[in-house]
Amino acid sequence: MALAGAVRCWRLGAGPSSLQMQALSLHMSKTAMGASQKDFESAMNQVKLLKKDPGNEVKLKLYALYKQTTEGPCNTPRPGVFDLINKAKWDAWNALGNLPKETARQNYVDLVSDLSSSDSSSQVKPEADRKQPGYETLVVTSEDSITKIMMNRPAKKNALTIQMYREIMLALEAASKDDSTIIVLTGNGDYYSSGNDLMNFMNIPPGEMEKEAKNGAILLRDFVGCFIDFPKPLVAVINGPAIGISVTILGLFDLVYASDRATFHTPFTHLGQSPEGCSSYTFPKIMGQAKAAEMLMFGKKLTAREACAQGLVTEVFPDSTFQKEVWTRLKAYSKLPRNTLHISKQSIRNLEKEKLHAVNAEENSVLQERWLSDECINAVMSFLSRKAKL
Ligand SMILES: CCCCCCCCCC/C=C\CC(=O)SCCNC(=O)CCNC(=O)[C@H](O)C(C)(C)COP(=O)(O)OP(=O)(O)OC[C@H]1O[C@@H](n2cnc3c(N)ncnc32)[C@H](O)[C@@H]1OP(=O)(O)O
């Protein structure tokens, strides 16, 4: 069973009461006697029904216990240094040493039982009830005429995987048609987003780099295009540091509210990359040529207050009251006449659309070439081999 397979599909299937029943029955069977093969199979099914992502550490533990139960001690060669995901999985399995299969099975069943119990109790939270199904990397909710799209990879600082770019596009597409007045993009955890997931550059077979760079540029063009064309008011709720693409697209938002803990960082030169998200056009327009150059060319990191002074951020709030103040404000705005608000947005934005699409296309063609450069490849390798951080 692949790690992804072990944890996929959590949002599908049984509702809270049936989950609670299954968790209870797993718990009863494990306490009465050692876990049976039937308990193990039931636990494997139970894993697929979990709604809350337990995080990578737990997923690795589940993977390792699964392998130990079904195959015994780790018996395969260690994957190569750049095969980071398989190496982490191998390490987790190998760490179980000679743990007997029966003990591994019991531990797997126990772990799933614990996860199911906390998952069931978390389901009574109102937000879980409102959560839209079908997203693995986002939590999308709608309430008070506001659709909130929350990036949900807190352990990875909400770094954007290919799947996440696609899910954000899907969520925006759905939100453009739902009955919400305002759409919010925000992050779960201590970061807003650390930008493009540098793992997107990994596991590319030899000789496929050019093709993948082309596909990456198409994906990025479509992603940024969704923001350019988005018809309703778009609000960024910046709960913490923001890096790379998560910063550059802010010029396409209508409001940007930031916690005073947030920072804004576009270190493209350090990464051998060039500006995207239409920032080569929107940033000089918003903050002037000189300030834009400091950010986009020289990678100057701005505090929330500096970003506000330069016009990139609408308003900064103290972190301790950030969520309360921002959501109170947004709930009030969401009661404004919906159609008028949307028409006003069109008036403000429509004149620029053609220009923005042209800028988007140009930026992506430059980036496509940058991704193939030694400067970019070395910077990515440096981060992934833990030699560099921003
Ligand atoms: C040829 C194919 C091309 C395909 C292209 C697809 C589309 C591309 C679009 C390109 C667009 C945009 C460019 C950008 O966005 S550039 C910005 C890229 N971001 C970074 O360089 C940030 C790198 N991260 C860091 O420097 C640090 O992690 C941090 C954010 C400063 C946080 O440091 P920390 O010490 O507080 O936490 P740390 O332990 O490092 O992080 C926790 C775990 O999260 C992982 N992680 C964080 N950010 C990223 C990231 N951007 N990519 C991948 N992984 C990330 C980190 O590795 C830790 O993981 P683990 O716990 O060790 O497993």
Question: Which characteristics define this entry?
Answer:
single chain; 390 residues; alpha/beta; three-stranded mixed sheet
Structure description:
- With 390 residues, the protein is an alpha/beta fold.
- The protein is built from 16 helices and nine strands.
- The strands form two sheets. It has a six-stranded mixed sheet, sandwiched between helices. Strands 5-7-8 form a three-stranded mixed sheet.
- Helix 8 (162-177) runs parallel beside helix 9.
- The longest helix is centred in the last third of the chain and has 33 residues, at 338-370.
- It is globular, with a radius of gyration of 23 Å.
- The two termini are 35 Å apart.
- Mean pLDDT is 88; it is low at 1-32.
- Ligand LQQ7U7AH binds next to helix 9.
Principal-axes geometry comes out as: globular
Strand content: 5-15%
Mean pLDDT: 88
Largest sheet geometry: 6 strands, mixed
**Termini separation (Å)?**
35 Å
- The H-and-E topology, N to C, reads as HHHHHHHEEHEHEEHEEHHEHEHHH
Mind telling me the C-alpha Rg?
A: 23 Å
Spatial order of the strands in the main sheet?
1-2-3-4-6-9
Derived from helix and strand composition plus strand pairing, the structural class reads alpha/beta
Ligands, ions, cofactors: ligand LQQ7U7AH
Pick out the low-confidence regions.
1-32
Number of strands: 9
Fraction of residues in helices? 40-55%
The number of helical segments is: 16
InterPro entries: Acyl-CoA-binding_protein, Acyl-CoA-binding_sf, ClpP/crotonase-like_dom_sf, ECH/Chromodomain_protein, Enoyl-CoA_hydra/iso, Enoyl-CoA_hydra_C, FERM/acyl-CoA-bd_prot_sf
EC number: 5.3.3.8
Family: In the C-terminal section; belongs to the enoyl-CoA hydratase/isomerase family.
Main location: mitochondrion
